[in-house]
Specification:
This protein has 539 residues and is α+β, with helices and mostly antiparallel strands. The protein has helices at residues 2-30, 45-60, 80-83, 87-97, 102-129, 131-142, 145-154, 157-175, 178-191, 193-210, 214-224, 226-234, 254-258, 282-295, 302-315, 321-326, 328-331, 341-357, 361-376, 389-393, 396-399, 504-536, and strands spanning 239-240, 410-411, 425-429, 432-439, 443-450, 454-461, 466-470, 473-475, 478-479, 484-489, 492-500.
């Protein structure tokens, strides 16, 4: 009898190992070009390369939570990282620190997000439906066309990572892993705040339908990232160009959503010839069409995902423009077609749910094969030869912008500067001389010698957090007419220091995030220790 039990356990384990092996192989096949040296040309690629570099500079100077991009805006700097999702930059900077060049770090960061998504999808679906439906659902989901738009056309590393952690969050809820759910929620916010806006309602209802106590873990995840989103909300008043996209220009037509097509161009007016693909994909479309008939009364969560896709498709069409105009929050999504990301998550779930209810091995195998074959062409991107970091860092078209669309992002006091400053510190008013003693990413120090009162200008864009000290004593830092930082210095010899630091608000939320992380990790360790002690030493 015991032998039969062990044989069943062994067969089950082998089945699960084979399942995860198939899913990992499928993910590797789809993302194989992310592991090939070279530059992957995408819409956002160069932006991210420079962001990785600038973010790494801030980390190297000891900024645990980087907010300033010192080399952008022609060297005047810009508070880019206060507003733009940081997690891709942490990961990309880490790869760069380990020795990969910027282009390789970009591709590997994309690979991390995509791999997390496919593997987490398998563990989520296996918990709900078993191994075989999970394998089929995960593979079909891995070859949903919009994945390859995000990876190989747009190069949207933040969205890819965020989608990966959406699957982790869904799996955490299904497995009732509260700490992992908290970390996944935090990772979604830090990976891409717009994807967080799209999926938090879905995750909320999924957690509420599964186990309401999981909602507390989601709230903790939001608090954990307060260091990022609180300053971003409160400091919006100090910048311009956070959203320069007119959503009205980016509604696909219904025929573009339903009929397969492929292009590597941009979205919007004037790009019809090689326009970016907005297709759902043939196999996902079949699954979405038959799901309401087969699942709506047979599967607990099916109405949630079917409804999410239905709402998303409606909001992607021009007929929904009145709704976009009346709900300002929707305009923050920027591109209506971005809601195709919901299809990426709903497709594997609905397919696995169908297979668990209706045992159609031949039909399922055919659909998996068709999904892979139809999307296989999309997994082969254009590649350029491998280039060193010097190629990008020596070209002003990459380094001197604001790493935003049309260089539209800037501080309230200074627009984008096309020319670099001649010197970091200069005498703007009066007669004197400056000898520079320190010129780092966010710290500038110079000795000023003058025969009378002078005004010293530090050629960096003024922004809350920049401080000035004269002879070690704080002095009022104020923006001048150019938007740089100026300070009045009395006659004589004085040492002037300008440096970037956290504001009182940022310090508070930094401590909140760090305290929350400490509490989360310590409580998890203590709970794990207590449970294991009682397991082996019952009272």
């Amino acid at each position: 009898m015991e032998e039969c039990i062990y044989m069943k356990i062994g067969l089950k384990n082998h089945k699960e190992l084979l399942g995860i092996a198939i899913v990992v192989l499928a993910a590797f096949v789809a993302a194989r070009y992310l592991f090939v040296p070279g530059f992957l040309p995408t819409h956002d690629g160069e932006y991210h390369l420079i962001r990785f570099y600038e973010f790494g500079r801030m980390l190297a100077e000891g900024h645990l939570f980087p907010r300033w991009a010192p080399g952008l805006n022609s060297g005047y700097g810009v508070p880019l990282f206060t507003f733009f999702y940081p997690l891709p930059n942490y990961i990309g900077s880490f790869f760069h620190f380990l020795g990969w060049n910027l282009a390789d770090s970009f591709r590997l960061t994309l690979a991390v997000g995509y791999s997390i998504a496919v593997v987490a999808s398998y563990f989520w679906l296996k918990r709900l439906f078993g191994v075989l439906p999970a394998v089929a659902g995960s593979v079909v989901g891995a070859f949903t066309p919009y994945w390859f738009v995000d990876i190989f056309v747009r190069g949207s590393v933040g969205e890819v990572l965020a989608l990966g952690f959406v699957f982790v969050a869904l799996s955490s809820i299904a497995h009732e892993k509260k700490t992992l759910l908290t970390l996944a929620i935090a990772a979604i916010i830090l990976s891409h705040n717009i994807i967080a806006m799209i999926f938090f309602p879905i995750l909320f209802f999924y957690a509420w339908m599964t186990d309401k106590s999981m909602l507390r873990s989601m709230i903790v995840g939001i608090i954990l990232t307060s260091y990022f989103w609180v300053p971003a909300l409160f400091e919006r008043q100090y910048v311009v160009g956070l959203n320069t996209v007119n959503f009205r220009d980016h509604f696909p037509e219904l025929v573009q959503i339903l009929i397969p097509s492929w292009g590597t161009g941009f979205s919007g007016p004037g790009f019809a010839l090689d326009e970016m693909s907005y297709q759902i994909g043939l196999v996902p479309l079949i699954i979405l069409l038959i799901s309401p008939i087969m699942l709506v009364w047979k599967q607990k969560f099916a109405p949630l995902f079917i409804g999410a896709v239905g709402v998303s498709l409606f909001l992607m069409l021009e007929v929904s423009i009145p709704l976009w105009e009346r709900i300002p929050l929707l305009q923050n999504l920027q591109y209506p077609w971005r809601l195709l990301s919901v299809v990426i998550v709903a497709t594997p779930f609905l397919f696995a749910a169908i297979l668990s209810k209706f045992r159609w091995p031949v039909v399922s195998l055919v659909l998996v094969g068709v999904a892979v074959m139809l999307s296989f062409f999309y997994t082969k991107p254009v590649f350029y030869e491998s280039r060193s970091d010097a190629y990008y860092l020596s070209r002003r078209e990459f380094t001197d912008g604001t790493s935003s669309l049309g260089n539209g992002f800037s501080t309230l006091w200074m627009a984008w500067q096309p020319d670099r400053p001649v010197s970091r510190m200069e005498v703007a008013n009066g007669e004197g001389a400056i000898t520079m003693r320190q010129d780092d990413a966010t710290t500038f120090m110079g000795d000023v010698v003058s025969s009378g009162e002078v005004t010293v200008r530090t050629n960096v864009a003024f922004y809350p957090g920049w401080r000035v000290a004269v002879d070690g004593k704080g002095a009022p830092a104020k923006p001048d007419a150019r938007g740089t930082i100026s300070v009045d210095i009395p006659k004589g010899t004085h040492r002037v220091k300008a440096y970037f630091s956290e504001t009182p608000l940022r310090i508070v939320v930094d401590l909140v995030s760090l305290g929350c992380l400490f509490w989360l990790l310590s409580s998890t360790i203590l709970t794990y220790t207590y449970e294991n002690r009682n397991r082996y030493h019952p009272s």
